């Protein structure tokens, strides 16, 4: 499928996701009804989703990212369009916080056989699903480690499959009413730095996505040499949820602006320059490119 048709497919799926419940049911009755059945009974079920570029991947309903992928074939319109805009054949892409592998697989599709994708997912159970999803991909290299500012060992909170997108070194960025109902299992995970990884693998990164559930700033500190030498495009998750120990998003944006990066946001269906905010950031992903 060429790039133009990929955009058409995505836009069609995005359109469906924004329709009313009745319109969604008419547009995709089987997926809507079956996923709602699984959600209603809180039955954790591994199932195949079809992405908007027509590739299968394993997901687990009723997990939030999985539900979106099963129903609509995409997750996060803005981030997805960042990838379509920036990733080209032959590039090297790093996916920090890969989860089940949606952006890893999209990156693999876009960079092609001559490109590379290096993915990092620390939580063991989540990593197993990622591993299944990339099994037949020769251009994907996965790492069951956490990315951090130094090489050490850290404790990761695993909140279970349903809330696996929120697994973190810190308290999960979940509403209190949910946090009070779930318990986390702690795993001791080995960390690495991107500077160290780049050197050991002898690769040149073109695009780095950082979704580290609160450890974004620590990740940036561990890739200072990479930024200085290669100036990769960076997408980073922001959002202030008053989690103890997590730097505010304004500091992330300021850090990269001081590295001569210009931030961009996806708003109203298009990319525009992002202006540094003085108040708290809502959940979003910001694209950074060097001037």
What does this structure look like?
The chain contains twelve helices and 13 strands. It is α/β, with parallel strands linked by helices and 291 residues long. It has two domains: 1-75, no CATH class; 76-290, 3-Layer(aba) Sandwich (Rossmann fold), CATH 3.40.50. Helix 2 crosses helix 3. The two termini are 32 Å apart.
How much beta, percentage-wise?
A: 15-25%
Element-by-element helix/strand order = HHHEEHHEHEHEEEHEHEHHEHEEE
Helix content: 25-40%
Mean pLDDT: 95
CATH architecture classification name of the largest domain: 3-Layer(aba) Sandwich
Describe the largest sheet: 8 strands, mixed
Task: Map the helices and strands.
Layout: H1 3-17, H2 21-27, H3 29-40, E1 45-50, E2 56-61, H4 64-72, H5 77-86, E3 92-96, H6 102-111, E4 116-120, H7 124-133, E5 140-143, E6 146-147, E7 153-158, H8 176-179, E8 185-192, H9 194-201, E9 207-210, H10 216-221, H11 224-230, E10 233-238, H12 249-257, E11 261-267, E12 270-273, E13 284-290
Parallel strand pairs: 3-4, 3-9, 4-5, 6-8, 9-10
Antiparallel strand pairs: 1-2, 7-8, 10-13, 11-12, 11-13
């Amino acid at each position: 499928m060429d790039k133009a048709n990929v955009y058409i497919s995505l836009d069609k799926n995005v359109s469906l996701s924004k329709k009313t419940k009745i319109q969604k049911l008419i547009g995709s009755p089987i997926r809507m009804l079956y996923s709602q059945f699984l959600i209603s009974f809180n039955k954790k079920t591994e199932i195949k989703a079809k992405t908007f570029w027509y590739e299968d991947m394993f997901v687990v309903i009723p997990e939030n990212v999985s539900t979106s992928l099963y129903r609509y074939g995409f997750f996060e319109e803005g981030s997805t369009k960042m990838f379509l805009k920036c990733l080209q054949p032959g590039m090297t892409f790093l996916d920090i916080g890969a989860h089940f592998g949606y952006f890893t697989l999209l990156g693999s599709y876009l960079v092609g056989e001559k490109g590379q994708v290096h993915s990092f997912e620390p939580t063991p159970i989540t990593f197993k699903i990622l591993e299944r999803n990339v099994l037949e991909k020769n251009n994907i290299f996965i790492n069951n480690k956490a990315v951090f500012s130094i090489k050490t060992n850290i404790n990761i909170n695993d909140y279970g499959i349903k809330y696996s997108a929120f697994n973190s070194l810190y308290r999960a960025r979940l509403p209190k009413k949910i946090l009070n109902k779930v318990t986390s299992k702690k795993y001791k995970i080995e960390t690495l730095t991107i500077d160290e990884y780049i050197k050991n693998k002898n690769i040149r990164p073109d695009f780095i996505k950082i979704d580290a559930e609160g450890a974004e700033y620590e990740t940036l500190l561990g890739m200072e040499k990479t930024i200085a030498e290669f100036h990769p495009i960076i997408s980073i998750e922001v959002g202030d949820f008053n989690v103890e120990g997590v730097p505010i998003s304004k500091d992330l944006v300021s850090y990269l602006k001081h590295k001569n990066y210009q931030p961009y946001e996806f708003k109203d269906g298009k990319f525009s320059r992002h202006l540094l905010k003085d108040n708290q950031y809502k959940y979003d992903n910001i694209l950074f490119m060097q001037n």
